[in-house]
Design goal:
This protein is an all-alpha fold. The chain has one domain: Orthogonal Bundle (Penicillin binding protein transpeptidase fold), CATH 1.10.3810.10. It has 11 helices and no strands. Helix 5 crosses helix 7.
Amino acid sequence: MGTSVAAPARESARRHRVLRRTGRVLAAVVLTFAVLLGIAWVVTPGVGDAQQLVSAELAANGGTPLQGNVPDNLAQALIATEDSRFEHHIGIDPVGAVRAGWGLLTGKNLGGSTLDQQLAKNLYAGGEQSFGDRVQSVVLALKLDASWSKDQLLRMYLDDGYYGHGFYGLTAATHGYFGVEPDDLSWAQATLLAGLFQAPTAYDPFLHPDLAKNRQQHVLNRLVAVGDLARDQADEIATQSWDLVAG
């Protein structure tokens, strides 16, 4: 009888010990990450030249800056797929920050990068992701969000993007793939483009239409998941032609 009473008590005590240890580890991760960020903030330069860097990258690759507004359908598709809390965070996502902190300590890339972090990595780290680069990308993401509006950040991200098939920047991509201006993108075209960012060469719709279609479906599923599209709307878009020009 005594054994049956003691067993649950021992199990409860064990759980409490595990929770305390887990809490200490998480606290250490957060503290270490905060210290690293503080140091990096001081030594990391400002981001007032971000637009200049994007323009220089476009010019070097024959791209043209986006004119007019960021297309709403592409913005929704990109945010739903790459960074669903983009409109609300301060450059880093708290959940992603915890993963990033653990990744810094373990030397692993656990994902969770925001659009701001990806833009910072592309503009200031040349796409590299060493330990120091990952810390710097977090600081730069915070500085980007503090210095530029969400619309400006999204515009720079779209202009700085490589869309596959030799197309740099959104305007070159819409002209090259569809023969239309960015403002005239259909939902089918916008969801295709939003899917290209992860692997533009692998999802090139001219060369790999089946893979591109599967990736587009993922984008549509994300739009449904965040409530931007109803399931029947997404299913209808999935049946629509991309109207690609000759590749």
